[in-house]
Amino acid sequence: MDLSDIRREYTKGGLKRSDLPADPLTLFDVWLQQAVAAKLPDPTAMTVATVDEQGRPFQRIVLLKDIDERGLVFYTNLGSRKAQHLANNSFISLHFPWHPLERQVHVVGVAEPLSKLEVVKYFSSRPKESQVAAWASKQSSRISARSVLEGKFLELKQKFVNGEVPLPSFWGGYRVKIDSIEFWQGGAHRLHDRFIYERDSENSGWQIDRLAP
Ligand SMILES: Cc1cc2nc3c(=O)[nH]c(=O)nc-3n(C[C@H](O)[C@H](O)[C@H](O)COP(=O)(O)O)c2cc1C
After folding, report:
1. Which residues lie with the beta carbon below 6 Å from any ligand 1 atom?
2. Which CATH architecture has domain 9-126+169-211?
3. The model's pTM
4. Cα(190) to centroid of ligand 1, in Å?
5. Closest residue by Cα to residue 65 from 176, 165, 154
6. How far apart (Å, rounded) are the C-alpha atoms in residues 29 and 189?
7. Which residues have a Cβ under 8 Å from the Cβ of 29 and sit 6 or more positions away?
8. pLDDT tens digits along 91-104
9. What is the tens place of the pLDDT at every residue in 107-154?
10. Sequence ranges of the domains in the chain
């Protein structure tokens, strides 16, 4: 297989400066809704990049669970590798790869832990099996075999058979406060459209610039 022959033209349409709203979340909402409407698999999936203590980057996919003017929310295990990275360096980058729509969105910001109240609210909305699985998995730790995980899951399922599953103390989430967000729309002949929104110095609005493709 010759990988160098794999390419396609991007023809779905452009993005114009005059179409951009003052608030980037307005555009983000529209693009997310279009990704859902287009039935993309996991439209809320985003690649999350963090760095370790040596500054080495690492990425993984997580699901976006909420958006408001304060930022973008995701949930995870607070002992996981990503949580350890964020405890040491709260800078974070998110990436939405909506390539069937010839689009991508990049976010750079700061991750802040969610309040326990917010986490409890979300945790209690999850299916019971997912709640038990959160208890069973010490995320990112080394385990000897799948059977260890399954044994733990069954044991905890039994333990919590009656009543509600409580929130584990080691489970939570983050809100990513956006410092910059870039919208990328593919264009013909690789002349793509890119616009970056960056918070202005007074933190009161957004500066918008076009970037070369
Ligand atoms: C489609 C998809 C969705 C995922 N959603 C989450 C999520 O919402 N939260 C989470 O902690 N991990 C999620 N994962 C698993 C992560 O990619 C990752 O394996 C896990 O969080 C451990 O990452 P870490 O060791 O870097 O902390 C998801 C994986 C995929 C493929």
Report:
1. 42, 45, 58, 60-63, 74-77, 80-82, 139-140
2. Roll (2.30)
3. 0.96
4. 32
5. 176
6. 28
7. 67
8. 999 999 999 999 99
9. 999 999 999 999 999 999 999 999 999 999 999 999 999 999 999 999
10. 9-126+169-211
